[in-house]
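Module 6 notes. Inverse folding takes a fixed backbone as the condition and produces residue identities as the prediction. Think of it as a translation problem where the source language is geometry and the target language is the twenty amino acids. Below is one complete input and output pair. Work through it position by position during the lab.
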């Protein structure tokens, strides 16, 4: 039993008992935790500033139960520009959902932190939401151990210089336009779509937001991400479904270039 302090990304909050909240947070040192925040739903409460999609330094009591108790908070960044816009908020939720989905409780992964903070900052500042969020999401997948080898053609070993490029979403392989087999889990994208993805994966977090994906390229990268998550994780985060249905991003079919 101990009191500790950690930098926390607040991923989720839901009502708990009469006036408390059950918080899912991701700590820089502690990884994902579940914690009770007492009295947050009363108007006057010192934890009233604790809300989802924010970055807060928390004082936490770790008792005998699995659930910790948040006893104090000091907001670092609330990303207000992100929560004023439903679309940006949905992209921000996708980052929170992905972290919640991919990491087990108490599995420390400090490298996650800057990608989420960088993503939320970019969304708050009005950067291209799809580019910022999906770049961070692909890097988060990589940190979780999912990194498709989409670099050279599986058959000829060459770096594609012509499109379309076929991506295998199950076996993580790539085929150039001449060697595309007839498998049904392949998806064809523009050369420019694949190149944009490659450039994103070479970025460090300080350059998050570079190489904007617009129009058809953005739609293709979104679709590849959604299907990759479905293929490897099996579930789609709710925010990803929301973005697909409400924002109407993405394309159908196997050949995304038509
Ligand atoms: Zn080839």
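Target side of the pair, the amino acids:
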């Amino acid at each position: 039993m101990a009191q500790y302090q950690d930098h926390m990304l607040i991923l989720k909050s839901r009502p708990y008992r009469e006036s408390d909240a059950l918080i899912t947070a991701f700590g820089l040192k502690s990884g994902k935790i579940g914690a009770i925040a007492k009295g947050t739903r009363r108007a006057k409460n010192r934890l009233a500033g604790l809300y989802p999609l924010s970055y807060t330094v928390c004082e936490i009591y770790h008792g005998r139960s699995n659930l910790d108790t948040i006893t104090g908070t000091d907001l670092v960044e609330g990303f207000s520009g992100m929560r004023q816009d439903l679309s940006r908020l949905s992209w921000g939720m996708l980052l929170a959902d992905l972290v919640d989905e991919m990491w087990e409780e108490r599995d420390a992964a400090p490298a996650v932190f800057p990608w989420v903070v960088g993503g939320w900052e970019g969304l708050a500042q009005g950067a291209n939401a799809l580019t910022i969020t999906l770049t961070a999401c692909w890097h988060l997948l990589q940190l979780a151990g999912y990194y498709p080898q989409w670099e050279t053609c599986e058959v000829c070993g060459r770096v594609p210089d012509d499109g379309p490029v076929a991506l295998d979403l199950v076996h993580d392989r790539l085929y150039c336009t001449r060697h595309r087999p007839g498998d049904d889990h392949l998806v064809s994208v523009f050369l420019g779509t694949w190149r944009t993805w490659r450039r994103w994966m070479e970025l460090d977090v300080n350059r998050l937001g570079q190489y904007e994906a617009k129009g058809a390229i953005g739609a293709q990268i979104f679709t590849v991400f959604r299907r990759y998550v479905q293929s490897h994780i099996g579930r789609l985060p709710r925010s990803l479904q929301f973005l697909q249905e409400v924002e109407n991003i993405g394309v159908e079919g196997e050949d995304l270039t038509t």
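Reference fact for the lab report: The pocket of zinc ion is lined by residues 153, 155-156, 158, 176, 178-179 (CB under 6 Å).
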